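Troubleshooting log. The previous structure file for this entry was overwritten by mistake, so regenerating from the original sequence record. Sequence copied from the archived sheet and checked twice against the printout by T.R.
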Amino acid sequence: MKILITGITGVLGSRLAQKFSKLGEIHGLKRPDSSTALLPKDFPVVWHEGDLVDPISVEDALEGIDLVIHAAGLISFDEKDQYQLNKINWEGTGNLVNAMLEKGVKKLIHVSSVAALGKSPEQNLINESQKWVNSPWNTPYAISKYLGDLEVWRAVQEGLQALVVHPSVILTKIADNRSSAQVYDYVLQERKYFPRGTINYIDVRDVVELMYRLYTKDSWNESFILNANSISYKDFFASMATVFGKQAPSKPVDSWMLKVALFAQGIGKMLGFSNSPLNKQTAMMAQLQVTMDNSKVTSVIPFDFTPLEQSFQWARSND
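Regenerated output below.
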């Protein structure tokens, strides 16, 4: 079997490549300037240079492929990146599924996000049956991922088989030095404040394992939230601080503080929102208490998620 992975040079994609290599030959779609540092030096990949926004390069990469794992995407919560978010996450996904239909490649594992399910302050528990509602709490990133999902489900109606996963905040290694690792920065810098809302999280190793098991169970044309737990930011940061040997944030961020200053870049890093500055949307979201329901995936695959403290210990290790 030949497996093409988009986003293979990223934190999740590189781990998916290593896991799925036991099933067949790994092919990778990458831009010419992409670093392959996250993959083992001797790891065998058949490389295809291209870009999701270039449909011809995508079609060329699909020649002879049996399965596509679509892990590529842009993460940003800054409104100025809306065009690029739509270009990559929406249009790029559309280009991919169109090319798959054209080439007769039938099977797709699509990495979406819990953000694509939408948010509003009235909804405290979100599951896969969530209906998208236009809301001020939906960031440009969320909208672009939602529109990308629509492209996948449209392609399913045209004959594609798709397995869609919605991971929450993915915990990776600090040494990965990617945007996904910035959730640790605030505690490492011993900042003082924490938001009053909740954070939903999952270890990247659990994401990979669940995706692999869902594939081996032929869970086609279904979507699954991948989330270990939902806890308060206060407890999340306290646990992290204990493992890292740092002082935990101890003061809650009140709404009036956000309205007065929004704390600019500092709180933006605290909330783990990539390099984007804090804005009204991300500030509001961090105050929400929302749980991403993982009962569907655990009913299909009984699973022991990695304890949070173990994820933090692994994140700072050299393993």
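Residues 9 and 36 are 5 Å apart (CA to CA). Archived copy saved in two places this time.
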